[in-house]
Design a protein that fits this description.
The chain contains nine helices and 19 strands. By secondary structure, it is an alpha+beta fold. Strands 3-2-1-4-5-6 form a six-stranded antiparallel sheet. It has a five-stranded mixed β-barrel with strand order 7-14-15-16-19. Strands 10-9-8-13-18 form a five-stranded mixed sheet, with helices on one face. It starts with 5 loop residues before the first helix and ends with a strand.
Length: 446
Amino acid sequence: MAGPNTIDILQDLVAQARRQGADAADAVMVQGTSISLTRRLGEVEQVERSEGSDVGLRVFVGRRQAMVSSSDTGRDALDELVERAVGMARTVPEDPWCGLADPGQLATEFPDLDAVDPHEPGADELGEWARRGEEAARAVKGVTNSEGAIAGHGRSVVTLVASNGFARTYAGSSSSLSVSVVAGEGTAMERDYDYSSAVYAADLTPPDEVGRSAGEKAVRRLGARRPKTARVPVVFDPRASRSLIGHLASAVNGQAVARGTTFLKDAMGSAVFSPGVSVFDDPLRRRGLRSKPFDAEGVATRAKPIIADGILRTWILDLSSARQLGLETTGNASRGTSSPPSPTPSNLYLAPGPLAPQALMGDIAQGFYVTELIGFGINGVTGDYSRGAAGFWIENGAIAYPVSEITVAGNLKDMFRNLTPANDLVFRYGTDAPTVRVEGLTVAGG
């Protein structure tokens, strides 16, 4: 993990790049440890532990930039890193929008986000999570096989140093458990899973609940049918509804807006959702899976509404996309060690509504309840939406029978305007949404 001289190493790297002719430079180091354990049919199949660090250097020569990275932090390797980066930056095409943050844009306050669990689970503890999860799943009547349980924990430290004076570090941790099982026999088999992740291991859903839920989900899918093609209300389970918010994030990404390759490129300040619907990006949420006090360019992060009362209020921007659009960055830059920053959401979520999921579907005479989406039939330019799906048919406001091998189709512009959220939001993934109902989608079955 982060050593006391990490910032010194990166500062020396940046200074060396300047001495070799770079006008500006920044360097990032990502250090991490992880451990995972897989258990299947009562036996431990695999235990993996990894530990490593990567360093990336970005240099600017005029309006040209180049990035290089290395997992070797030895002196000779870093010297070569600088030489290659500066040499590359002299030969690549100009980018009028590249460059470091101005000193006035840099973060100066660094709130405690409680993003690191002081307890680090070992292999024995992870094995116990996996054992309890798989046994609970296999105990569900109708479960006939197991694809296994995977328990894991990881920690990472990110350090950023730049020639504009920025030099800071932040850390994060996460623990997770997933269980996947099979129900039925022969040609009438179905699989499903459940999953829990959290910054603190103590905040995970208990393994027995994760396993039991996975088993019950698999059994409920047995006997699936294919309904006739119809235009009906569709209710998305939270596992599926979060993907809709992911599509929104892609549509309001500053790079897509600057290129004009999003169906929302002209929608700023207009109604995208119905009144009362809001979507937030909150990188400062305590114990958030994607929380961070500053972004990949050293800019302060802040909580903000992407959608407020149905109205699109902001793009998701880094410095480059903000400059292209004549705007200020929203502090959403993200980067690896070998690539330039790009705008990325943090803890993105659809705010819950007032109704319980059952009330949301109570007046549906015929409809579809989606629990799983398959494939990626999304046109980001037009908003056209078509994805394979499985779940349950709704009759007279209640779940009637499982369905599979069908397609849900519509257009995201219409889907967003006709979307109603339920009240069951749970932060589980980093991009989260409650159960939602969307009117008038085409469900293509038999």
